[in-house]
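User: I'm new to structure prediction. If I give you an amino acid sequence, what do you actually give back? Let's try with this one:
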Amino acid sequence: MSDTFKSICPATGDVVWEGAPASAAQVQTAVAKARAAFADWSLRPFQFRADIALAYAERVREHSEAIALAISRDMGKPLWEARTEAGAMAGKVAVSIKSYNERTPTVITDATRLAHRPHGVMAVFGPFNFPGHLPNGHIIPSLLAGNTVVFKPSELTPQVADIMVQCWTEAGLPDGVLNLVQGARETGAALLDADIDGLLFTGSAKTGTFFHKHFAGRPEVLLALEMGGNNPLIIQDPVDVDAAADLAFMSGYITAGQRCTCARRLILPEGAFGDAVIEVLLAKISKVNIGRWDIDDIFMGPVVSVGAAEAASAFEAELLSKGAKSLSALDRDGAFLRPGLIDVTGISVPDEELFAPFLQVIRVPNLDAAITQANATRFGLASGLICDDGAVWDHACPRLRAGIVNWNKPTTGAASTLPFGGPGLSGNHRPAAYYAADYCAWPQAGQIADVAVGPPMRGMT
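Assistant: Good question. You get back a string of structure tokens that encode the predicted 3D arrangement of the chain. For your 461 residues, that looks like this:
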């Protein structure tokens, strides 16, 4: 293991963070601290834990600009967008408290009792695209439920994790309840091999599948895996072509295409209407402002690294070699990519999630063909339909195999009061967001009586 690792700002090439990765021994120490803190923390009244979480939300609001700067400098996200992420982090606490009370209640009747218990030590692996908001969405419900946590952020975006832990400390979180281990693959491997009770992960299907295999034969370790998607967006003859193109543009290119709910496949009808959508979309691509995170009037920044940009260009080249038609090239400059648009109709393409501003156009003759194309994926996270006809929506919605199905909204829209996740390679059927309470605690059921009463006996002499 190297002595240090660095975070490189993809917009400038500057080193914006440098530190030592946690060794295997340090990871074991962090897990041991979490284990030692569990008994006291788990037996505290829920309101005690909730009050600390609410104080954490206040600290996040106080440090929101520092959080936004850390996110932008680490992964290149525009500052205006990073500020919305910081806001979502603070807002997550109240939503999580409400979710805990609704989804994991204590219910006592004259004869039965239902309660919910924490698992123990939870390992949280954070992604780079929302380095604050997404691990925050695992950590808060875990702590509210009474678990303790060991948090390993992405090595690409380490800065915000330091601030998050600082905010929890300032909020009064007891020592050992939340433990940070910075590092890359070797640090993560040590955490996988440690004495943990659960693994909460948001990231790629490749990594999530590896984790699933790693814990094969260990049903006692809870896995909650959110693994992205190859998401379709269907446009079916709405009156407002400009609005449809706006929704497609936002779905495919927000955050430089680095959201797990971004549209990857744009499914359009054959004929004049589909041609018109492409024409308007190309006009928007030609006008989009791309630049450094600290420039005010930009829509998107770079992807997370030069390597990620090179991988996107290689994927584009692969599709072109198969016979796809480029409508707007990615045009790479370092880690910056101009939004790409490519027609892959009739082409066999890899069923992969490409984290880049790149939309694949598929032309179809009718709605049922569009639905068939939308479902032609191993994933199932998000999908969308743009149309004016409610009957079309009613026909399509139950036939679209995705955990999030939006109507006349970007595919990237997800409500904090709803679950987040999907079938197939998008996860292991443990949706997050409002349903995170479900995987952060297990139900304890029982029959009860105030006094001991012997049961009726038969066959006794």
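You can read the tokens as a compact description of the fold. Here is one thing that stands out. Residues 212 and 223 are 8 Å apart (CA to CA).
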